[in-house]
């Protein structure tokens, strides 16, 4: 069969093309890190030219999942739709040929949506996300949550496959492939969760590494393929695995070796071939168990590959170019375009690790040595001293680029030099953070330091450590292809925590959806009494505040008049209308100058508002409140209290805020104690509200860190007194023993750990609170051991034993 050749290069994106789809023979869809989704329509009469249309544009977001939703019109003809999503958390669905027709949006994920697929008949959609959730959507509504909870830190669902009308297969960062039988689960395994059913996997397959791609073999391909496989998977180990569903389970039927790095994407051609793309700059075509063609790209990564109804291939790469390849002579690019593409590939630079030139053979080596496998890369030394990379393809060595040795100069960060300074993207509408690292540094110590310096949740620890390991792995360039093709990768470094205690930094939440909150404020503003309504000018200024907090969430300049408008909403509007205002206060509190307002401080405003204790005369002092007698708990909502506690947690971000939290430690700890019901005479409040419990344990966590920090400065003078610490331990115990969330249990352990780290009399408090017993019991919950909880337990035990 003829080889694929370039058909077209589609240039318009300004950053990596992360996802592509081919919904019709003449339309291509692409999503990019430049914040756009584009549809490319083949120009009439010119099969190699496409005209772009920007379907979505959001410069502060990026799109990294695009897929086809099959659909047939009444006459039976295909009328496919396109789905796309990314860091904006919304799944958009549009008609491929008429983008303004029947536009749908799906809401439900809480982090970057990185995978999309639809069943062959289009009866349902499945999505995977960094939030560790996999959702099945029916009739454009969330119908089922596919359970990926391992009891440990949440892990991204990188790949989803709607295998047939009743079966979903997923691939995850926890290295597992999971298979879900939707039909069976409706009857047996469904349980209520967040308004829709949670479905457990009936089969879980442990693989050697992170799973990033899945694809379905058609019935015809299964019959033709020597493995007789039903589906394929691929990921970080660079191996494509072939799987067969049998009566007794799922069997691995074979492996395809050829890629030299991560595999990001898989697709299937109509006539029985696999297509793959990855970090080694290539798209590969596999017939049977053999790689029959390797298409090198002038880019570092080929993020995505898809097959069209006409069996052309489209790829999206890190150089921002969408490329189409074809076997059809009529759609092949002209000779000039083909030559230009080949020249661009040959002149492209390939990053490589430091290497000893003495061990690199001369270019003449290629004349007497054959490749050991299709796609193998070999580096050779040219006569002028240039290091060249050649690839074994179609029984000959082909030049694919010039190897660029790493520079000896170091990168600078905050006045210091490092071997690496990486950009870290922590979420939508958040600024890029810098992560410095030197060769030889401990990965886990660096991850912990990064979280502390940027005040990020400890739950990010594993993801940051994996990010460092991944980027260190990427420094290996193409050297892997130079050795024995049967070599295996060294074992991955065991997951561990490193010196968790003491934790001196504070946790706070800056992510927001204030634009939605402002819309709610505008809506509610028309329903409240005119005397307390915000005027148009105040609403406009709130819009400016949204822009400021979005652009600089922790360094925003807060206009005192605008802050006062928010306080009016929080303290004077009807209780059921206050939640958006409380969310504004949360975002204000994390900034310098955000802790106080003209009539007092935002802590009192938020807490007394949430407890429905504000009056026209203002707010009473927090210290005067009796949580049992003064609060009508039956008239208080868990969501308002949750948001007030988030305000409290965010106040730890600034010196002024910490002074307020220190001064008000007594009443705030009393509030936490009442909510958890640590006194047997008190009834727990909002025990089933996970957001409330998360906000509560975060405030407790921050108080424990504050106590440690204050005791280091002045061992005797502190408002976070020993009785308060004793209550904090009781609160931590209640959370650890009543909440199922591993993150909440872990933070509870860290509360106890930081108190133990103070030393002295506080160690006796920890001993008396039986911390090791209840923390060990929490660590044993669930089917899988949570290493984080055990690590905290071990460090506390070491402190108690005086080692």
UniProtKB/TrEMBL annotation:
SMART domains: WD40. It is found in: Cytoplasm. It comes from Schizothecium vesticola. Residues 389-482 form the PFU domain. GO terms for biological process: proteasome-mediated ubiquitin-dependent protein catabolic process; ubiquitin recycling. Residues 499-799 form the PUL domain. The keyword Secreted does not apply. It holds the Pfam family PFU. This is WD40-repeat-containing domain protein. The keyword Chaperone does not apply. Residues 352-372 are annotated as: Disordered.
């Amino acid at each position: 069969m003829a080889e694929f050749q370039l058909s077209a290069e589609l240039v318009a994106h300004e950053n990596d093309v992360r996802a592509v789809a081919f919904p019709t023979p003449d339309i291509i869809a692409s999503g990019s890190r430049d914040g756009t989704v584009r549809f490319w329509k083949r120009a009439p009469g010119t099969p190699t030219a496409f005209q772009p249309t920007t379907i979505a544009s959001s410069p502060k977001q990026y799109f990294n999942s695009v897929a086809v939703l099959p659909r047939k019109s009444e006459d039976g003809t295909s009328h496919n739709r396109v789905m796309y999503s990314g860091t904006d958390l919304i799944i958009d669905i549009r008609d491929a040929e008429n983008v303004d027709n029947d536009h749908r949006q799906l809401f439900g994920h809480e982090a970057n949506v990185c995978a999309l697929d639809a069943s062959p008949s289009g009866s349902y959609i499945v999505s995977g996300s960094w939030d560790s959730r996999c959702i099945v959507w029916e009739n454009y509504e969330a119908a089922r949550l596919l359970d990926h909870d391992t009891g440990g830190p949440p892990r991204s669902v990188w790949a989803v496959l709607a295998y047939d009308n009743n079966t979903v297969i997923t691939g995850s960062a926890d290295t597992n492939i999971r298979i879900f039988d939707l039909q069976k689960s409706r009857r047996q395994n469904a349980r209520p969760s967040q308004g829709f059913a949670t479905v457990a996997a009936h089969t879980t397959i442990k693989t050697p590494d992170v799973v990033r791609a899945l694809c379905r073999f058609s019935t015809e391909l299964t019959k033709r393929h020597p493995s007789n496989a039903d589906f394929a998977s691929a990921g970080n180990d660079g191996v494509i695995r072939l799987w067969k569903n049998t009566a007794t389970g799922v069997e691995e039927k074979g492996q395809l070796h050829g890629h030299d790095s991560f595999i990001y994407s898989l697709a299937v051609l109509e006539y029985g071939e696999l297509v793959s793309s990855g970090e080694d700059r290539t798209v590969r075509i596999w017939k049977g168990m053999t790689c029959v063609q390797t298409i090198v790209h002038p880019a570092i990564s080929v993020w995505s590959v898809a097959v069209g109804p006409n069996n052309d291939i489209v790829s999206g790469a890190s150089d921002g170019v969408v490329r189409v390849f074809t076997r059809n002579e009529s759609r092949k690019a002209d000779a000039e375009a083909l030559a230009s593409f080949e020249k661009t590939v040959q002149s492209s630079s390939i990053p490589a690790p430091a290497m000893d030139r003495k061990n690199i053979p001369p270019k003449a080596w290629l004349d007497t040595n054959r490749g050991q496998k299709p796609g193998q890369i070999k580096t050779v030394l040219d006569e002028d001293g240039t290091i060249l990379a050649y690839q074994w393809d179609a029984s000959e060595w082909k030049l694919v680029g010039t190897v660029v040795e790493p520079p000896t100069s170091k990168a600078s960060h905050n006045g210091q030099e490092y071997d690496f300074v990486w950009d870290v993207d922590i979420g939508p509408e958040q600024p890029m953070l810098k992560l410095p690292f030197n060769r030889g540094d401990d990965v886990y110590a660096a991850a912990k330091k990064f979280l502390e310096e940027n005040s990020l949740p400890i739950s990010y620890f594993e993801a940051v450590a994996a990010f460092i390991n991944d980027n260190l792995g990427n420094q290996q360039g193409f050297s892997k292809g130079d050795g024995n093709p049967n070599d295996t990768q060294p074992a991955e470094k065991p997951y561990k925590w490193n010196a968790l205690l003491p934790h001196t930094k504070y946790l706070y939440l800056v992510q927001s959806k204030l634009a939605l909150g402002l819309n709610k404020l505008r809506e509610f503003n028309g329903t409240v009494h005119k005397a307390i309504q915000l005027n148009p000018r105040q609403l406009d200024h709130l819009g400016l505040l949204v822009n400021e907090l979005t652009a600089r969430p922790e360094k925003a300049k807060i206009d005192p008049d605008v802050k006062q408008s928010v306080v009016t909403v929080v303290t004077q509007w009807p209780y059921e209308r206050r939640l958006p205002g409380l969310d504004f206060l949360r975002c204000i509190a994390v900034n310098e100058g955000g802790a106080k307002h003209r009539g007092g401080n935002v802590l009192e405003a938020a807490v007394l508002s949430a407890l429905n204790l504000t009056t026209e005369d203002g707010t009473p002092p927090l210290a005067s409140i009796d949580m049992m007698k003064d609060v009508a708990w039956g008239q208080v909502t868990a969501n308002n209290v949750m948001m007030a506690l988030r305000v409290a947690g965010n106040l730890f971000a600034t010196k002024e805020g910490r002074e307020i939290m220190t001064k008000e430690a007594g009443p705030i700890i009393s509030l936490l104690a009442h909510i958890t019901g640590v006194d047997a005479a008190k009834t727990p409040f909002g025990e089933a509200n996970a957001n409330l419990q998360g906000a509560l344990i975060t405030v407790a966590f921050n108080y424990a860190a504050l106590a440690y920090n204050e005791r280091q400065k002045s061992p005797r003078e502190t408002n976070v007194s020993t009785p308060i610490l004793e209550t904090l331990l009781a609160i931590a115990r209640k959370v650890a023993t009543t909440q199922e969330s591993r993150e909440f249990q872990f933070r509870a352990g860290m509360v106890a750990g930081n108190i133990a780290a103070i030393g002295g009399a506080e160690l006796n408090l920890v001993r008396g609170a039986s911390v090791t017993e209840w923390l060990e019991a929490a660590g044993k919950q669930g089917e899988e051991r949570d290493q984080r909880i055990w690590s905290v337990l071990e460090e506390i035990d070491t402190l108690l034993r005086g080692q």
